[in-house]
Amino acid sequence: MSVFRLGRGSSASESVGPHACDMGDQADEHSCLNVKGRGCMFTRLETRDPLKRVQASNSHCLPCSLEGQELPCWSVGAWMGGKQVTHCAMSCAHQQTITQAGYACSDDTGFITQSQCFDKAARSGSKCMFTAYEDAAGEAKASCGPCELAGSGGWGCPQVGTTGPVEGSTVASCLSQCDVLCSGPPGCPPTVAPPPPPPPPSPGVAKVSSAANEMVSAPAPFAIPTANPYAVMQAARDAAVQAGYTVGTAAPPPKAYWPVVYYRSPIDYMFTTGPPPLAVEAPLAEGAAASLTQATSHIKKASLRRLK
User: Fold this and answer.
1) What whole-number distance in Å separates Cα of residue 133 and Cα of residue 110?
2) pTM of model > 0.85
């Protein structure tokens, strides 16, 4: 059984215009999905430039219904204006999304259940294959992918114990929607039915337990992409460059000079004249310059006394 939270209910009668959803290119998700009198759609885009240390991102709030027409949510992974869609949610009741048959089955994060995999097939009108495997470290994971594509044909499940979808992994079980078991006439000639595939771990989760002293992440055992606060500044910088402005660099820190005294030998330090050191340096008088006085005659007299 799959349980999904219903979308935020919006007013049946749209009492405000679609411009109520307009919140600029850095919209807030909570404010977007809670506009009174209007259903809105929140979407976030991010660049994928390997030469940038901080990726520029934008978030928009758009109406999810316009003039009685239901608008679907943007597909996660799609490209729009040089940026890739990373998140999309709406407060309208229809909750429509754009899915491509076959492509919607692809999920190689390692954290997916059998029911979620087959639900992707039902939503996109395609057939998917669920594969549970163990990686090189012995961790139980799962993947979902298409079992047939238009123009390419179909393929069956890999054998248990063979190489899995990840390098160094081993297939533990597999269940494909393309494998249809025929029980005999009139659909097909009488044949010996192959043994059924082993059931996946209940309730379709590849890993159902963990050690008591192991720190696990939620809601998925991988890093969830979040909004980088520096992405707003990066987006403003990119907009300035496109507008023809020259982006300057920060000025270097001011240089500081400290006086350094060199002695000919360590014994010269014993004969250096001057006031005793203070715990707190006294401020110099205005216009006065720091100086180090050392009388050569005093050093000569002290040296003569030691020779005598």
Assistant:
1) 9
2) no
Q: Where are the domains of the chain?
A: 18-90, 100-208
Convert the pLDDT of each residue in 191-219 to its tens digit. 555 556 555 554 556 667 778 888 877 66
With pLDDT > 70 as the criterion, what percentage of the chain qualifies? 70
Per-residue CA distances from 12 to 30, 94, 110, 195, 227 (Å): 20, 12, 40, 52, 32
The rounded distance, in Å, linking the Cα atoms of 91 and 154 is 38
What is each CA distance from 62 to 18, 27, 38, in whole angstroms? 8, 10, 10
Question: In the chain, which ranges are E strands?
Answer: 40-46, 57-63, 65-66, 69-70, 79-80, 83-90, 128-134, 140-146, 148-149, 153-154, 170-176
Q: Is the pLDDT of residue 114 over 70?
A: yes
